[in-house]
């Protein structure tokens, strides 16, 4: 079952169950995926690749995390809880996140392969590490690992 089919099935199930938070989150995912499909469409119909779908989901998750942080700082815990609930739904469709040890192992491997020796090589190491950990790790966690291993 493709991601799109899974989302459609989950949309129907959440409509029947009456879970408004889940329904809103799935509608948001579906709308963003459709928007991305339309943006890459050239002549006829366009299908998103798995990487493109994961990019969209990662972007949605990052937006929810940022919104949670902003609402918490702004003294709106009710809105932060809503964002947290929607984030949980989005994370169901993302691959399992990499642990800190897995992130560090990938960064070490990239540093060894590229011959990086100092912080000047951070951009190159970050780029390769993010490609290897696409959808599995947050950029902030990868950046912290790269800084720790290069310094």
UniProtKB/TrEMBL annotation:
The lineage of its organism: Bacteria, Pseudomonadati, Chlorobiota, Chlorobiia, Chlorobiales. This is GatB/YqeY domain-containing protein. Pfam families: YqeY. PANTHER family: ALTERED INHERITANCE OF MITOCHONDRIA PROTEIN 41, MITOCHONDRIAL. It comes from Chlorobium luteolum (strain DSM 273 / BCRC 81028 / 2530) (Pelodictyon luteolum). InterPro entries: Asn/Gln_tRNA_amidoTrase-B-like, GatB_Yqey_C_2, YqeY/Aim41, YqeY/Aim41_N. GO terms for molecular function: carbon-nitrogen ligase activity, with glutamine as amido-N-donor.
